Structures are given as structure tokens and as C-alpha cells.
Fold this sequence. Notes:
Shape: globular
Radius of gyration: 20 Å
Mean pLDDT: 95
Number of strands: 9
Distance between the termini: 49 Å
Number of domains: 2
CATH class of the largest domain: Alpha Beta
Largest sheet: 5 strands, parallel
Number of helices: 11
Helix content: 25-40%
Structural class: alpha/beta
Low-confidence stretches: none
Order of helices and strands: EHHEHEEEEHEHEHEHHHHH
Strand order of the largest sheet: 2-1-3-7-9
Bound molecules: ligand FSX, iron/sulfur cluster
Amino acid sequence: MGKVTELPAIWIQAAGCTGCSISVLNADYPNIKNLLIDEVVPEKHVNLRFHPNIMAGQGEAILEVLSSTKREKGYVLIVEGAIPTKDNGIYGVIGERDKKPITMLSWILDLSSSALCVIAFGSCASFGGIPKGNPNPTGCKSVGEVLEEYGIKTPYINIPGCPPHPDWFVGTVASVLLFGLPKEEDLDELRRPKLFFSQTIHENCPRRAYYDEKKFAKKFGDPGCLYELGCRGPVTYADCPIRLWNGKVNWCVGCGSTCIGCCSEGFLDEVSPLYVKIEEAQFPKEV
Ligand code: FSX
Ligand code: SF4
Ligand code: SF4
């Protein structure tokens, strides 16, 4: 057997609901055990050193893990949740030093500056999401906004979704392990991996024939396209209809719900109210 190389990773949770973590815990092939204990790709192992939900450690000891990983460099920083920035970020803290709270903002600035890359996981981290929604009392911002505001040049990848699909995380990490950091041409203009986000939901939806024939559901439970019930599939980029969710069991439109545009840059404010029809003039031209 060859020598196993390790990629250290730190997962910071900022302002979110933890759904992104729960989604990754539901990864199936590879599952979360394969991801954390085994080699995700031959001779490469992800060493997840800090994750608030699944690590056993607590207190000073785990804060030291953050500091020592930072000193080593060569790690990936994963951020889940938007970053509260108002009043120096005091509305979101992780631990304390000398009896003073350490803000999420300061951790993210500190850890991102020495990271190989930052993965903004979920719509909150990628675009601000629900925590940034009007009136945004804590001044939440996306990871990209914060890095750019503070002049931090570490490359970052946005993986939106509320929550994002576990495959989008595992696939991105596996790609970093196999091929190194994604090249600019692998990301779109919103820094999403093109592999997962290059087509709209509407392009691959199994109800698309109904749309083309103008057979629209009038109420939930009806057969037909859900466009008139407010489906955001035509303006949302993600591969849900072909990837499916929960171990390929089903997905939003498959179970009779509209796509609510959870991967959209404007989620949630700009896709609301959710169950009101959008205008066809808003569709991108490729659909
Ligand atoms: Fe946001 Fe993560 Fe939505 Fe929740 O914390 S992307 S609110 S599913 O889980 O950040
Ligand atoms: Fe599918 Fe929604 Fe497009 Fe109708 S509008 S075809 S339900 S994605
Ligand atoms: Fe989000 Fe739409 Fe995919 Fe459902 S179908 S997970 S709402 S992007």
C-alpha cells in the first residue's frame, strides 16, 4: 500500500440552521464514514479536525486545534452559514479568549487567510441566504463578500443550496484531492462548480413535456407542470432532477412540490413569495 496523504479540513458554522451539515451526514456513496475515516480517493484522506456537530472534543482543547491547524497551513476551510458582521460581528461567536468572545467573523478572517481554499457551503455561506434576508439585523454577509471586503485573496468555491446536496460537497472535495484546486474555468461567474450548476432545473425536469404542452397543475397534487404554482425551476441552476436526493429516492418536483430556488443567488428574498408564478420574461434564454 502506498503512503496516504492527508488533507486537513476545518468546518466552521456561522449563522445558519445546521441543515448543510445534516445534509452531508446523509451522504451515501461514499457515506460519511468513508469520507471521514477511509480514503475518499486512493491514498488520500480528509482529516476533518473541527466540526461543531460531530467532534468529540470541547472547550480550550478544540480551539487549540483551530490555532494549530492554522499554523500548519495546507488545509481547506469550509464555512457553513452567513457571517454576522454588524457591530464587529458580536452577534455570532465561537468560544472565548481571556474571557472575551471570539467572533465568527474573526475566526473566518483568521483561518481563511492561511487556507489553501475556502468552500462556502450552502446558500447562506455562498450568497447570504436566509440570515441575510431583510431586515438582516446582524449584518450577515456571504463568505465571498467578507473575503473581498477584507482583501483576502484565498480562492473560494460557492456550493449553494438550502441545504446543498451531499454529492456537491463530496464531489468538490474529491476533485480537490485528485486534481488540486479548481481552475477558474471549472467555476461559473458565481464561483459555483460547473459540474453541478451549469443547467437549470427546468432543462432536466421530468414534467418539462407538460410545460411545453402548457398543461399546468392548478393545485398541488395535480398532474402537470408546476409553473403556475410558482415553480422556480426555470430560473434555478442545479442538477437535482438528474441527481435526485436522499439516496436517489426523490426530489422536490418529484414529490409534488415546486422548486423554491434554494440554490439561487437571491434566495430567499428575491424568490419570494414562493408560490406566486414568475414571468416567462425572467427565464434565462437557454431554457
Ligand atoms: Fe443556510 Fe446551513 Fe439553509 Fe440551513 O447552516 S443554506 S439556512 S439549510 O444549514 O447555512
Ligand atoms: Fe418542471 Fe417547474 Fe419547469 Fe414545470 S416549471 S417543467 S415543474 S421545473
Ligand atoms: Fe433546491 Fe430547487 Fe433543487 Fe429543490 S429542486 S433542492 S428547491 S434547487
